Structure formats: structure tokens, C-alpha cells
Amino acid sequence: MMQTTRFFSLGISVLIAFAGCKKKSEVPPPQDAQTQATATRTVRTLTDNACSFLTNEEIQKVQGAPVKETKGNGTADGHLQVLQCYYAAEPSNRSVSLMVTQNDPKGTDARAAKESWENTFGRYDEDKNKEREGEKEKAESLREQKSGRGEEEEEGKAPMKKIEGVGEEAFWSGSRVGGALYVLKNGAYIRISIGGPDQEEEKIKKTKALAAEAIARLP
């Protein structure tokens, strides 16, 4: 009788242990916080044709040089979709670079691109910042007088220049070797960069012409 009881108790113990192992194995391993954060930051590589916003013929008409090759790519992160295309021209200093920033169609943030524009270019909008600039002007003047620095400190720097006549808003960023025009339209914006020996005013004229074609193809 004692031996039977011992076997019975042993059988119960084995069943309890088996049930515990089975229950434990059904619980999925927890994801650590870093793994979860990485999953939410996944950037998709796009197959969209970024080079469809401008044709080779339009580039050649403006730059006076044939396009030999185009290279496009794009990414999206759930908020912004960024498409880029490089139009390799002959000679190479006549090449054009285009970037389109818009809301990610697979995301839910309908103001992502517009907010990106405002964060980048809001401080350059004279109309919006007129009052604030007036308030800061005296304070800045006093600081310059005290530090002994004035306009000389800004020499050689090229500030953003507001451009009229294209898109809803546009700004030009120039340099000694090139320049880029940024244009806002329909909650998205583009960046067109060109090289070449032209003077700044001529480059602005050319990028405006190309921008008009590109923004007409925005969704």
C-alpha cells in the first residue's frame, strides 16, 4: 500500500511539472525596449521613380546640355517620404539634383512635410518674423557694439533669399560653386540644385523654370 501511494505521488508530481513546462513554453519571449524602438524607426527603401518629376528634355532646355544618365532613389519612415534624382549632364557641371519631400503615403501624419518646411524655413519668412525682428534689432545692435563686431562678422556668408513667382513659398541658398532653390507647394516641397558658370541671378532663373515643371507633378 505504501509503495502504491509513493508511485501515485510521483505520477502527480510528473504531471504538474509537465503542465508547468508546457505553460511556460507557450509564453512568447518579451521584446526589449531597444528592439521595439528600432522597429518603429524602420526606414523603407522606395522603388518610386524620383526622376519622373523632371524630364531629360526639360533639363537640357534649361541647362543647354544633354542628360547622359539619371539616378533615382527614395526613402520613407512613416512620416516623410523623400525622393531624389540626379540628372548627370555633359559637361558634368551642368548636372541637376532634385529632391522631393512629401508626406509618407503609408503614414498618418498629414502635416509632416509642411511642418518640416516651417521648421527649416520659418525663420527666413520676413512677413511672419517682422515683429519679432523689430523687437530683437535693438538688443542685437547693443550686443554688437559691446563685442566690437558688426557687419564684418557676416561677410562671406550667404543667407537664405526669399524668391517670388514660384510655388507658395520659395527660398534660394547660394554658394560660390552652385546654389539650390527650395519651393513649397501643396503641403510638399522640392529642392533643385544646379552647377555651372552662370551668375547667381541666372541660376535662380533656371531653377525657377525647373521648379515650375516639378511642382506641377506633385500630387
Describe the model.
It is built from 6 helices and 8 strands, in the order H-H-E-H-E-E-E-H-H-E-E-E-E-H. The chain has one domain (45-147, 157-215): Protein Transport Mog1p, Chain A, CATH 3.40.1000. The longest helix is centred in the first third of the chain and has 24 residues, at 2-25. Mean pLDDT is 77; it is low at 2-8, 14-19, 21-41 and 141-157. It has 219 residues and is of the alpha+beta class. The protein has an 8-stranded antiparallel beta sheet, sandwiched between helices. It has helices at 2-25, 33-40, 56-63, 112-121, 126-147, 200-215, and strands at 44-45, 67-76, 80-89, 96-103, 161-162, 169-174, 179-185, 188-194. A hairpin with a 6-residue loop joins strand 5 and strand 6 (169-174).
Which keywords apply here?
single chain, 219 residues, alpha+beta, Protein Transport Mog1p, Chain A, 8-stranded antiparallel sheet, 6 helices, globular
